[in-house]
């Protein structure tokens, strides 16, 4: 397991080891003991799986607020996405900053997104599938979304002038400036 830090404390890129042979490869995509050995103690309770047909589909930016904040461990099982996390922790020195990384079936990378971050992604291949573990259950009353194109965040989704495919909910999402994640900054944990 290779673990890389990012400029946003607590946001980590994990790359599990792959054992390749003539058949293909084998990989432990999640192992609680291995992660605990690296100080990652999230207790996951739900796995999600989405498929987006078109290239240029954006899902996000989403988070759940207290008492159902979610840590997410995100990977791409098919195709390729550019995955983005925005620090929305109250009092964080990097609040409002975003970080993005390409996750693909080929590169096997995973993004560990702590509670208090917004999450979203854009697909870079057709029929891309995102698979992710969550540390709390789906709680519609605690769902929050922020515009993917909020000028205060200025996320470069790599779309150029192409309009993304969005859900109706994401079309009408609010601004980052008025979003309260309800998660306080807990100090430099990386
Ligand atoms: C997120 C979620 C949705 N649903 C249902 C509600 C709805 O009818 C349908 C589609 O939901 P959405 O449009 O919210 O799906 P989607 O836009 O893919 O939402 C996801 O986006 C990414 C970026 C995340 O980080 C996730 O936490 C989640 O918010 O699935 C569940 O049953 N359980 C869940 O955990």
TrEMBL record:
Q: Report whether Isomerase shows up as a keyword of the record.
A: yes
Q: Where is this site: Participates in a stacking interaction with the thymidine ring of dTDP-4-oxo-6-deoxyglucose?
A: 138
Isomerase as UniProt keyword: yes
Pathway where it operates = Carbohydrate biosynthesis; dTDP-L-rhamnose biosynthesis
Gene name in the database record: rfbC
User: Got a GO cellular component term for this one?
Assistant: cytosol
Q: Provide the alphabetized UniProt keywords.
A: Isomerase
Q: What name has this protein been given in UniProt? A: dTDP-4-dehydrorhamnose 3,5-epimerase
Assembly notes = Homodimer.
């Amino acid at each position: 397991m290779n673990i890389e830090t990012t400029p946003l404390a607590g946001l980590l890129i994990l790359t599990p080891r792959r054992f390749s042979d003539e058949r293909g490869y084998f990989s432990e995509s999640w192992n609680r003991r291995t992660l605990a050995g690296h100080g990652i103690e999230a207790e996951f309770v739900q796995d999600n799986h989405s498929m987006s047909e078109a290239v240029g589909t954006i899902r996000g930016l989403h988070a759940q607020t207290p008492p159902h904040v979610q840590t997410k461990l995100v990977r791409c099982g098919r195709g390729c996405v550019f995955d983005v996390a925005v620090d929305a922790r109250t009092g964080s020195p990097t609040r409002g900053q975003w970080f993005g990384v390409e996750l693909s079936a080929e590169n096997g990378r995973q993004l560990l997104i702590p509670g208090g971050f917004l999450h979203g992604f854009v697909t870079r291949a057709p029929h891309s599938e995102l698979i992710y573990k969550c540390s709390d259950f789906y709680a519609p009353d605690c769902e929050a979304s922020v515009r993917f194109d909020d000028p205060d965040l200025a996320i470069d989704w790599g779309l150029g002038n192409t309009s993304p495919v969005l859900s109706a909910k994401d079309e009408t999402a609010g601004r980052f400036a008025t979003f309260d994640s309800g998660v306080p900054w807990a100090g430099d944990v990386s």
